[in-house]
């Protein structure tokens, strides 16, 4: 079995570049301290990288996924990680007893399935009293409506009110977070206690910040049937910084490629203008040659028409014997 699974676009594979790398790693880093010391179920764990990260903090972690190849890969890849196991499972019919886990983590699962209600019913069943659900899914307004590019792997995306209608009857207490990858300027203290803040500005209103972020691409919801489970979570702004500045390098590469394509386009446009100029000049010269050729033809036709007119007269016929005699003596035609 290959150590790596192919990236199809349906599940994230560690090492795949772009926004997806930031989105998926950040969610698990955000969830890790929330599930510290707990028995955790990671539903739709995929290749298992997130379950392995959670296992560094949790008492034990079970990663579950419908795809057996993903489970096989995760078992082989993370066999040495303690307190971690992987099970093949349908998220709408989980093979675990009631009240088996202190926390359930499920990132980017809802939008991939039609059985969204049975899935959340199963989550509620396997959670212990006062257990915590950490769930994420795309915000359909920002993810699809505004971008106009449907995801072929998504069965049913949700608006905020639709997601709330699924969660609230099962988990009456919740705290909502928004996630959006972007370019950020981060300021942080080198030592001492720190607090977080986030605000937005625009190019046309850089001097007028607004608090928070108004356009989450994904919702991350913490939900429970117990108010103390949510009250115990201290609200915080979480920032994932890329040590290798992967997206900047990718952005620079794309920008260089665009610049090179722009220069090549300008060169091709200049070559096209030169070719058109040469074509027009050749056509003009061709017109001049054609005009000269037509003039020569017209002159020859005029000469022939005058000769025909002369031969049509009675004087020409009277002088015909003399012209024939001249032709015989000199070898020149009479009109030469």
Structure description:
With 336 residues, the chain is of the alpha/beta class. The protein folds into two domains: 19-182 and 210-240, Rossmann fold, CATH 3.40.50.150; 242-336. The protein has helices at residues 19-31, 49-54, 68-77, 116-126, 140-145, 160-167, 227-231, 246-311, 314-318, 320-330; strands at residues 39-43, 60-65, 84-88, 101-107, 127-138, 173-179, 199-200, 210-211, 218-224. The strands form two sheets. The chain has a seven-stranded mixed β-sheet with strand order 3-2-1-4-5-9-6. The chain has a two-stranded antiparallel sheet with strand order 7-8. Strand 1 (39-43), helix 2 (49-54) and strand 2 (60-65) form a beta-alpha-beta unit. The longest helix has 66 residues, at 246-311. The model has no long low-confidence stretch (mean pLDDT 85).
- Count the domains: 2
The CA-CA distance between the termini, in Å, is 100 Å
Total DSSP helices? 10
Largest sheet features:
7 strands, mixed
In total, how many beta strands? 9
């Amino acid at each position: 079995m290959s150590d790596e699974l192919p990236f199809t676009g349906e599940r994230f594979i560690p090492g795949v570049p772009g926004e997806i790398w930031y989105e998926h790693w950040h969610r698990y880093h955000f969830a890790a301290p929330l599930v510290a010391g707990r028995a955790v179920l990671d539903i739709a764990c995929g290749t298992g990288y997130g379950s392995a990260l959670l296992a560094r903090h949790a008492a034990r972690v079970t990663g579950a996924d419908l795809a057996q190849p993903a489970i096989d890969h995760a078992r082989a890849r993370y066999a040495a990680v303690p307190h971690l196991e992987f099970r093949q499972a349908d998220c709408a019919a989980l093979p675990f007893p009631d009240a088996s886990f202190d926390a359930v983590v499920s990132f980017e699962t809802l939008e991939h399935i039609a059985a969204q209600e049975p899935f959340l019913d199963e989550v509620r069943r396997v959670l212990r009293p006062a257990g915590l659900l950490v769930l994420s899914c795309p915000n359909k307004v920002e993810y699809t409506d505004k971008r106009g590019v449907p995801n072929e792997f998504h069965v049913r995306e949700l608006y905020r009110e639709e997601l709330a209608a699924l969660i609230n009857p099962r988990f009456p207490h919740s705290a909502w977070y928004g996630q959006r990858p972007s370019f950020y300027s981060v300021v942080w203290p080198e030592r001492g206690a720190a607090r977080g803040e986030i605000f937005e500005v625009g190019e046309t209103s850089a001097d007028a910040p607004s608090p928070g972020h108004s356009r989450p691409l994904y919702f991350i919801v913490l939900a429970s049937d117990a108010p103390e489970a949510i009250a115990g979570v201290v609200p915080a702004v979480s920032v994932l910084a890329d040590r290798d500045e992967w997206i900047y390098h990718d952005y620079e590469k794309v920008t260089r490629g665009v610049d090179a394509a722009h220069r090549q386009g300008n060169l091709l446009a200049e070559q096209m203008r030169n070719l058109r100029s040469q074509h027009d000049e050749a056509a003009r010269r061709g017109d001049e040659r054609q005009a000269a050729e037509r003039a020569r033809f017209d002159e020859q036709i005029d000469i022939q028409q005058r000769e025909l007119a002369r031969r049509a007269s009675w004087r020409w016929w009277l002088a015909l014997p003399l012209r024939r005699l001249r032709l015989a003596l000199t070898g020149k035609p009479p009109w030469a």
